Amino acid sequence: MKNLQTMKHSVQKGFTLIELMIVVAIIGILAALAIPAYTDYTIKSRVAEGASLSGAAKTGIEVYWSENGTLFESGASITSIDIDFTGAAGEYVSAVSVIAGPIIQVLYRVDSSKLGTTADGTNNNGALDGCLEYSPERTPGTNIIWHIDGCAAKGIPSKYLPKT
Questions:
Q1: 38 within domain boundaries
Q2: In this structure, what are the phi and psi dihedrals at residue 68, rounded to the nearest 5 degrees?
């Protein structure tokens, strides 16, 4: 009878050190995979703000295209033609403008409080330093197809660009 009572008291009541180390290792592996994905996600969402703010300029250009069949009037680009677009800005976008071509240019704010910018225009805090451009592909009798690309000087890396 004594053996049965001592066996009941010697039953394990907790986790061993090895079990705890395995759980910590699994959490570390999951964090190593999740943190870079989260950073990419936040950068993509900030780039998407520029895509949504450029919608008014795209609409103005498309309306002009559908009414006139061209984006040029007597040698002048659409920037000298009234398309009823005054520009836009947001939390991460400093300006959206229509430049010659017509090309819609989205300039992102440079956040000086976030240091450590890398060569691809971002840092570990998801700050953006660059711009992107929407250029129209025009074929008479069809709708405009927009192409997205980073600016020549400081373009947003292609992995962060929105889908067309």
A1: yes
A2: -110, -15
Distance separating alpha carbons of residues 64 and 150, to the nearest angstrom: 25
User: Residue 134 is part of which domain span?
Assistant: 15-160
Neighbours of 95 (CB within 10 A): 16
Question: In whole angstroms, how far apart are CA 46 and each of 76, 83, 126, 163?
Answer: 33, 26, 8, 14
pTM value surpassing 0.70? no
- Give per-residue pLDDT as tens, 107-120: 888 765 554 545 55
Q: CATH number for the domain including 34?
A: 3.30.700
Report the domain count for the chain: 1
At 123, the pLDDT band (50, 70, 90 cuts) reads: very low
Q: What is the DSSP code (8-state) at residue 54?
A: T
pLDDT at site 157: 81
Give domain status of residue 3, yes or no.
no
